[in-house]
Write a structure and sequence with these properties.
Layout: E1 28-29, E2 35-38, E3 53-56, E4 62-64, E5 69-76, E6 82-89, E7 92-102, E8 109-110, E9 115-119, E10 129-136, E11 139-141, E12 147-148
Parallel strand pairs: 1-12
Antiparallel strand pairs: 2-3, 3-10, 4-9, 5-6, 5-8, 6-7, 7-9, 7-10, 10-11
Amino acid sequence: MAKAPENVKQPPVFAVANGAFSALRGQLRAPIHGTPAAKFGSKRGDGPSWKGWFIKAAAGTDVKAIADGQVVFAEWMGRYGNLIMIDHGNNYLSIYGNNQTLYKRKDDIVKAGETIAAAGNTGGNEESGLYFELRFKGAAIDPAAWIKF
């Protein structure tokens, strides 16, 4: 079988049925056990509004994938600290920032509920916890409609 040129974007390796992620709306479990401290759309001090949620939790608390997918990014990213992005197919991404430790690497396949990181305060927040964001077609969407917090 011929190999595709490197400049052609390949679909994720994991199998996703059409509409599989969108069918999970309102049924996904929270990525961490903690207390929501900042919610999507709320003002962030003098800065822009939050594009996700900040969930307070003790350093080292398990961070879990909200759904099956493939890790597309897993490293330090400025104000997000140690960050993991998971591609769930059909243009959906989940983003997990502020982590103390990352347990997964780019290209790893993950299952819903699998531990992917440990919460921390690497993103510049004074408190320990997780910054969690959902994106569809690159735009942030409110996780409240998707996650059972």
